[in-house]
Structure formats: C-alpha cells, structure tokens
Amino acid sequence: PDVIMVYLGTNDWGRAMRPTPRNQREAEDLTVFSVAYEKMLKSLKSHYPSAEIWCFTLAVSAFRRVEDFVFPYCHGGRHMEEYCEVIRACARAHGCRLIDLYGNAQPYDTVDGFHPNADGMRTLADATVELVQREVAP
Hints:
Layout: E1 3-6, H1 10-14, H2 33-47, E2 52-56, E3 61-62, E4 74-75, E5 78-79, H3 80-93, E6 97-99, H4 101-104, E7 108-109, H5 118-136
Parallel strand pairs: 1-2, 2-6, 3-7
Antiparallel strand pairs: 4-5
C-alpha cells in the first residue's frame, strides 16, 4: 500500500488497558497500550517501508437517540487523552503523520454510545478528509 491509516485504541481505552508501562518489566508487555501500539507501528514500517502511515487519535462519540447521554471521557479510571497522547508520541517517534480527531472533530453519532452508525461514519469520514487536506495543504 502507498498509504496506511491507523485508527486503533478505542477498545483499549474502553477496557482501561494501562496506557504506558509502570516499570521496566512492563516495557515489553503487549497488554500495555503504548507497547502494543509501538510494536504495531514497527511492524507496519518493517512490512511496508515505503508506505506513508497516518495515525489517528481517538474520537469522541455522541448518542443522539439518548437525550441525556454524556460522553465518558474517563473510563475505568483512564482518561481518553492518555491514549491520544500515546498515539501522538508514537506517531512522532516513528515519523508517521497524525490526524488529531480527538481535538479537531465533531462527536460522531453511534448506535450504542461508541460504535458509529451511518451518520457517525459520515462524520468521521468528513473529518478525516478535512484534516488530511489541512495536513497536506501547501
């Protein structure tokens, strides 16, 4: 592939996986989000050395069918921003492009509070196009 777009981490956040290692032993523990994310990027770079890789931060969702839905930025004691910061740091460290959906996109509508419905997918697609165009604009 010429371009690889990576949108990963929502389930890690939703399961409150530790964002970063606490000690040296955990620095190789694939149940730690930053360790797994970095390994994934290294693998992509190794298998597709000429591909341009775009990393996306996590996006905030909405649940318009439920009037009093409030997005849970903290889940399982972990704030979504912690995972987004891991993604930003890994993208920088591995020379990948970054699309910051977390800070620059409207909440996408969902079927259940997290999984996008058709309107939510359009919102994510439109945000992606806009942010990629902004990133590559001369």
